[in-house]
């Protein structure tokens, strides 16, 4: 069941805006202070990068590393994913090929950006662009997490469709990164926020900086995932100019790997203390039906407030107290799912191990959160294609080939075929995952297919109609709202 956030007056909401890294909420984790000498801490806080090879590893390898001494109301954990055997976790296919972008800024990039800003501000009396401020503390990046997580969701789907990922220069640190450029998405979000400011469209809201501002850019910041979901499914081309560099970014629909649809699985409400436990199973099923989830986490200290940091969720595992891993199939109730399920968040602070303390330039590649630390989740339905052809050398048998819209083979989890009279036909599977069925030329059939990540928006499998012929035929999809 889909739940939509109740629309309320925007000013009260702005008082509780999300912070991409929950800045100013939690102090640096004591484990970091315990493991780093005062000299190393000084180097971190004066903005100089601590080389990874010189950074002490936490003493004991665990599954989860707490990010504060006293657990907040909606905790997040650095996750050592390698400590979880594959039989105890359920992850989406190819999650480990997904590149990790890094939204952390560097002193050198801030200086470069400020040079461009000063050039843009020359001769202006009004409308000057705010200069950036480097913040060398851990957990104080540029607040671009929503754009980064949206780009990661798109990158995963691009890989499922067999596409190569483009390269771009990171706005945050100036280095090369792989995948859709988050800056393109964010610039268009800002542009649409100015357009929608008169009609109160909450999907492209940017809070005024006097309420809360980005600690690096000294401006307001985007905070609504639904706006980015709309951008990822945009069907029209557009251009948007970067006010800092003057570069014009161009978006074309083929740059998106999405297929025009997005679905909000759930969202929390300011009138409810935290996301109900039942939504753990909803998100788990969402990952199985639609693949990667675009997720906004709760404010760590105040889960009743609107969401904060955004991530791409790529799987889950189940665990009891004492880091005792269990099979998620043993969960029986909503309470079990809510309390024992940890969702695996692909984060945007580079690809670093959980065993390293967080610095001003890096953090764990993966985090783990339970459903009570999640504010909302969005998925992106994708379609299937079905080709049916006579099976060579076998009379009355027809082979089925299922692919995604890019022609990449997809192995169904279930196939069902019905004749015109409603009688179910025999469908058999091969060892290689392919399917074939019995039939006669001229038979008009309805074929129903379930495949991981490729369910229709309504949560059901994909339906097709076809008339069997001597030649290969492509089945016609049934519209499913």
Question: What's the short version?
Answer:
With 481 residues, the protein is α+β, with helices and mostly antiparallel strands.
- Using DSSP, what is the number of strands? 23
Query: What is the domain total for the residues?
Result: 2
Count of alpha/pi helices: 9
Strand content: 15-25%
Q: Cα-atom Rg, whole angstroms?
A: 24 Å
- What is the SS-derived class? alpha+beta
**Amino-to-carboxy terminus distance:** 14 Å
Helix percent reads: 10-25%
Question: For the report, how would you describe the main beta sheet?
Answer: 10 strands, antiparallel
Shape: globular
Mean pLDDT: 87
| Low-pLDDT runs | 1-19, 21-55
Task: Kindly report the oligomeric state of this protein.
Answer: single chain
Could you walk me through the main structural features you see in this protein, from its secondary elements to its overall organization?
By secondary structure, the chain is an alpha+beta fold. It has 2 domains: 10-379, no CATH class; 384-477, Immunoglobulin-like, CATH 2.60.40.760. It contains 9 helices and 23 strands. Strands 1, 2, 3, 8, 9, 10, 11, 12, 13 and 14 form a 10-stranded antiparallel β-sheet that branches. Strand 15 and strand 16 form a beta hairpin. Helix 5 runs parallel beside helix 7 (225-232). Residues 1-19 and 21-55 have low confidence and may be disordered.
């Amino acid at each position: 069941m889909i739940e939509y956030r109740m629309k309320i007056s925007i000013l009260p909401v702005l008082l509780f805006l999300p912070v991409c890294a929950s800045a100013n909420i939690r102090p640096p984790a004591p484990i970091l202070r315990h493991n780093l000498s005062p000299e190393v801490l000084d180097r971190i806080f004066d903005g100089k990068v601590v080389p990874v090879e010189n950074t002490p590893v936490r003493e004991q390898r665990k599954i989860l590393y707490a990010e504060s001494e006293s657990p907040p109301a909606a905790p997040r954990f650095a996750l050592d994913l390698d400590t979880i055997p594959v039989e105890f976790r359920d992850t989406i296919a190819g999650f480990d090929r997904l590149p990790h972008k890094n939204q952390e800024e560097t002193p050198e990039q801030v200086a470069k950006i400020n040079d461009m800003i000063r050039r843009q501000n020359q001769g202006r009396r009004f409308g000057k662009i705010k200069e950036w401020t480097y913040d060398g503390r851990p957990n104080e990046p540029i607040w671009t997490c929503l754009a980064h997580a949206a780009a990661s969701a798109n990158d995963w789907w691009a890989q499922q469709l067999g596409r190569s990922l483009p390269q771009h220069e990171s706005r945050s640190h100036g280095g090369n990164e792989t995948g859709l450029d988050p800056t393109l998405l964010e610039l268009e979000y800002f542009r649409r926020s100015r357009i929608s400011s008169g009609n109160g469209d909450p999907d492209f809201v940017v809070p005024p900086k006097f309420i809360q501002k980005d600690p690096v850019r000294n401006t307001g910041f985007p905070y609504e995932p639904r706006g980015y979901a709309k951008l990822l499914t945009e069907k029209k081309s557009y251009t948007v100019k970067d006010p800092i560099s003057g570069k014009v970014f161009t978006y074309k629909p083929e740059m998106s790997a999405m297929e025009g649809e997005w679905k909000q699985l759930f969202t929390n409400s300011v009138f409810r203390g935290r996301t109900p436990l039942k939504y753990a199973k909803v998100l788990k099923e969402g990952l199985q039906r639609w693949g990667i989830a675009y997720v906004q986490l709760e404010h760590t200290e105040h889960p009743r407030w609107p969401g904060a940091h955004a991530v791409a969720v790529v799987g889950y595992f189940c665990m009891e107290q004492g880091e005792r891993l269990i099979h998620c199939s043993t969960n029986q109730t909503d309470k079990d799912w809510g309390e024992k399920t940890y969702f695996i968040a692909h984060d945007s602070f580079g690809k670093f191990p959980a065993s390293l303390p967080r610095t001003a330039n890096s953090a764990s590649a993966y985090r783990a959160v339970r459903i009570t630390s999640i504010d909302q989740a969005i998925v992106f339905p994708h379609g299937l294609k079905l080709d049916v052809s006579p099976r060579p050398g076998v009379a009355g048998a027809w082979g089925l080939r299922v692919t995604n819209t890019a022609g990449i083979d997809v192995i169904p989890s279930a196939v069902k075929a019905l004749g015109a009279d409603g009688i179910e036909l025999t469908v058999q599977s091969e060892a290689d995952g392919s399917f074939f069925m019995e039939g006669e030329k001229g038979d008009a059939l309805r074929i129903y297919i379930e495949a991981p990540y490729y369910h229709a928006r309504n949560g059901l499998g994909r339906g097709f109609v076809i008339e069997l012929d001597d030649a290969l035929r492509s089945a016609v999809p049934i519209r499913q709202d």
